[in-house]
Amino acid sequence: MKLYLKTKDFSVSGESFELHWDPSLDMLVTKPKPTNLAPYYESEDYISHTDAQNSFTDKLYQSVKQKNLKNKIQIIDNQRIKSKSILDIGAGTGDFLVTAQRAGYTVTGVEPSAKARALAKQKGVELLFDLGELNEKQFEVITLWHVLEHLPDLEHQIKTIISKLTNEGTLIIAVPNFKSFDANYYGTYWAGYDVPRHLWHFSKTAITKLFQQHDMEVISIRPMWFDAFYVSMLSEKYKGNKRYLISAFFVGLWSNLKAIFTKEHSSLIYILKRKK
């Protein structure tokens, strides 16, 4: 591996990290990896675990999240699922599973954060601590919405996740794309790196190769249009731009326009199935 760029944890600790490029997978790896990642999530600034609506950024995040939830359910509906059983890994505060329940799905969720699980419980969703509590149970659909990049021991985690999928099941993974225009534009300041919480940074090649090793194939890739705007907004704030909203809008818009041709959106949703 060789050094790709240097960045830092802009949202919580301010500590410096490096991203190293793995040429065999076309993937970036965060170094050093802290031995204890928990403190980097224990912050009101880590909105995925708090449901915060304190700042304009928080409120915008929650608004975009509601729109994305509908899109996620539509993607799953389009797969023509038979048993309609969903396992959501890294379920956060449970909003996706609440939405899935309302759409007629039987839902199960896993979330290591006690704080997030407590918020999910208030919404009527009981989340498990880890995959070990599922025993031999399998699911028709498994989703990881911006979660794969957080998982330590990546190969083992992928193998475990696939073991929970039925033979005809569908695996849906959303991750940031470091090949996008906004990633290249912001470089060190790109919020999609989110070190050290994001341990891995994927390209299309990386996702394809990682899952090929487990007899899984990518059957479809979908863009997450809103991510270019939200990530650009955070990136502009990290740069110290007081007019971050205006700049972020134009960078996000240009990133999405370029991605129409390059197919390298700020974040991508991968739909995978077992090879036949």
Automatic annotation (TrEMBL):
Biological processes per GO annotation: methylation
Highest taxon of the lineage: Bacteria
GO MF entries: 2-polyprenyl-6-hydroxyphenol methylase activity; 3-demethylubiquinol 3-O-methyltransferase activity
Top enzyme class: transferase
Enzyme Commission number(s): 2.1.1.222, 2.1.1.64
SUPFAM superfamilies: S-adenosyl-L-methionine-dependent methyltransferases
Keywords: Methyltransferase, Transferase
Record protein name field: Class I SAM-dependent methyltransferase
Annotated source species: Flagellimonas marina
